[in-house]
Write a structure and sequence with these properties.
By secondary structure, the protein is an alpha+beta fold. The protein is 34% helix and 26% strand.
């Protein structure tokens, strides 16, 4: 008997549409609950949940009403050095495509919502594809780094959370590090990330962030182009702005090359097994496909690496997912050092499984997850346990 499936997501998103198409291939009973509905406090749907049901949390992104609602949930009147948006400001806040909005406050709201969801269902006989506590931990990049490190998964060293450019430079000096990534603690899709290099008194930074000045403030916007910053004053201004979003410093590790470009990997692990792999090739430090990175051929990379190095990559991705033993799946971002010497896990993405067109043994990511979930619900495997 397959339990009823509840999908919590944004009804209009491509992710939701693709997942629904996958669900329709099965004879599951299922229902969609929108994040807008849940965030409004309307909890009557909870009362109707059948015992034994399963819940899949999907991304709350790319919906401005949901973003504002999460910022509202995250309002805290205590003093902080991080960017804050008041209730009054939220009421008047216009939609500006790509704008970075109070990421620390957004995550505070996201955490409250995840805990509210767990509390609303406490005592009920329900299960999750990925439990809210795991989703929250995956979104918290420094915490995720610590969990992986404690599990023996190789990760880039982290130096802490600077308050401004000067503190960042001092961290780099003390860490004997000339190249770092400054990353917002709670963002996705490379939002707000800055790759900074300081060598022989020369500064340069790479980021997809665009700074727009006006009305006495600097607004940050995500673009689809990685910009190179070289002026010290502008780099300082950019770093100071990102630090106000609550950011941390990560050592910039060198990446191996393929076909004249640097690369990293997105590996979707389902039910403990590495399934789908995307090779992301780039001329600049960011390898996100929406920032212009190219898709490489897995077979070509595997041949270039050799089977022992490839097996190490797959084993590392699967080990990273074991840091979240209650989660069915995750998207692992992983780099390989030059010479194929060692893989390092950069992130575990709660919603890193949306890879249209990528198949593993004839299955897309969502179908693979559904088969694994159905198998888990029945106490047996529904997908092959033979990985890559």
């Amino acid at each position: 008997m397959i339990p009823r499936l509840y999908l919590i997501g944004n009804l209009e998103s491509r992710r939701t549409r693709f997942f629904v198409e996958s669900v329709k291939r099965f004879e599951f009973k299922w229902q969609i609950v929108s994040w807008e509905r849940l965030l409004s406090g309307a909890d009557e749907w909870v009362q109707g949940i059948e015992d034994g049901s399963s819940i899949r949390l999907d991304s709350p992104g790319q919906n401005f009403a949901v973003e504002k609602a999460l910022l509202r949930w995250g309002i805290d009147e205590r003093e902080t050095r991080f960017t804050r948006i008041s209730a009054q400001q939220l009421e008047k806040l216009p939609y500006e495509k790509g704008r970075v909005l109070a990421l620390d406050q957004w995550y505070a709201g996201w955490q409250k919502v995840l805990k509210y969801l767990e509390a609303s269902l406490r005592g009920r006989s329900v299960s999750y594809f990925n439990p809210p506590s795991d989703v929250g931990a995956m979104f918290d990049k420094p915490r995720c780094n610590r969990l992986l490190n404690e599990s023996g998964v190789p990760v880039p060293p982290v130096f802490g959370s600077p308050g401004d450019f000067d503190e960042l430079v001092e961290m780099m000096r003390l860490g004997h590090c000339r190249r770092i990534f400054l990353k917002p603690c709670y963002s996705s899709s490379a939002s707000g990330i800055v790759a900074l290099e300081i060598q022989a008194g020369r500064h340069q930074a790479f980021s997809s962030v665009e700074m727009v000045r006006g009305d006495g403030e600097i607004k940050l916007f995500n673009s689809r182009h990685v910009k190179r910053y070289e002026g010290l004053a502008e780099i300082r201004e950019l770093v100071d702005a990102i630090c106000r979003e609550n950011a941390y410093v990560e050592r910039w590790l060198p990446k191996a090359g393929l076909g004249g470009k640097r690369f990293d990997l997105r590996i979707v692990v389902v039910a403990g097994i590495a399934r789908h792999v995307v090779v992301r090739l780039s001329d600049h430090p960011m390898t996100n496909l929406h920032l212009g990175a190219k898709r490489g051929e897995v077979g070509r990379l595997r041949e270039a690496m050799g089977e022992p190095a490839w097996a190490s990559v797959i084993a590392t991705a699967e080990k990273a997912m074991r840091s979240f033993p209650d989660s069915l799946y995750g998207g692992i971002d992983l780099l390989v050092s030059p010479g194929w010497k060692k893989p390092h896990v950069l992130e575990v993405n709660a919603f890193g499984d949306f890879l249209p067109g990528y198949l593993w043994q004839g299955l897309d990511t969502f179908t693979c997850e559904l088969k694994a979930w159905a198998g888990r619900s029945q106490g047996r495997d529904q997908v092959s346990t033979t990985g890559l």
